[in-house]
UniProtKB/TrEMBL annotation:
Domain of life: Bacteria
InterPro entries: LysR-type_TF, LysR_HTH_N, LysR_subst-bd, WH-like_DNA-bd_sf, WH_DNA-bd_sf
Pfam families: HTH_1, LysR_substrate
MF-aspect GO terms: DNA binding; DNA-binding transcription factor activity
TM helices/strands, residue ranges: none
Lineage start: Bacteria, Pseudomonadati, Pseudomonadota, Gammaproteobacteria, Vibrionales
Keyword DNA-binding part of the UniProt annotation: yes
Record family assignment: Belongs to the LysR transcriptional regulatory family.
Boundaries of every HTH lysR-type domain copy: 21-78
Keyword flag Transcription regulation: yes
Record's protein name: Transcriptional activator for leuABCD operon
Keyword annotations of the record: DNA-binding, Transcription, Transcription regulation
Amino acid sequence: MIDNTIVPQETNSVSSILRGVDLNLLTIFEVVMQERNMTRAAKVLGMSQPAVSNAIARLKDVFNDDLFIRHGRGIQPTSRAEVLFSSINNALNLVRDELPNVPFTPESSTRNYSVSMRATLQSESTTRLVRDVSLLAPNVSLNISMLHDQELSFMVDKTIKKKDFYVDFSPILMKGYRNTLLSSDELVVISSTAHSRLSCFSSLNLSDMMGEQFVLHPAILDMVAKSEGEECVGRGAHVCHSIQDLVTIVANTQLVSIVPRRAAELANLTLDINIVPCPIKDSTIKTYLSWHTDKDRDAGHVWMRDQFQHVFNKQMVMTV
């Protein structure tokens, strides 16, 4: 009788290789990388030094690399170990974040947070955020990039890695995202104190605005257009993605702009600009912090959300 039973063949798949690796070795590798000394690493881990050395020897076989070489009284990682550490550390942090009741300790955390933020909000907010986080969590790092509309449209693609935080003038209304209000500010019209028509104005109406040529941040241009129509600021308005550049342009030309009051008053400390209320119907500009719901219970993420709130609340108090 012929036996037609199909016997699965052992394959060299990633999953089968992973099953053969003692994942506890990765936590040992992480501590050795951080301490750069076997004796200190053994003390941190509560293990004997020979046991730590044996674990690293096993990992050398797994990765086919020396991983560490002797250097003075300690050890120095190879270039391969440096690359591995970045990936392994991030992976272990993700696992730690999902474990229930695991506290987040900012003083010892080595976490990296990715943030996408509108250029309008970057300068002052970023400075305060980085400074405060550095004081509270010296080994935590922030990767802050400029937020573009194209990035928001890509969020529906689940293959694209999500950022930890998004800071924008609008909440993300897609399924799976949460939003919290960080701040609220008033839009104002700015012009040079040497402007031929507006230098002596203490207020403006819409008809006054329609006769001027504007340079605007695209997000604010959209807000004004939705509130009053594009003709309010002229269809040929210049666009500038940097508020710092924009206010400098206004201070040195006959162009006019609309910016958040906080940005205008900060610029007015060093530039000669005139600031008047913006006459559009909805002159309030809000800033939101958004994140994916899969981070809701992440203690480290909750801590970072608190830092955002603290920074923006401080800014609001300083301008009251």
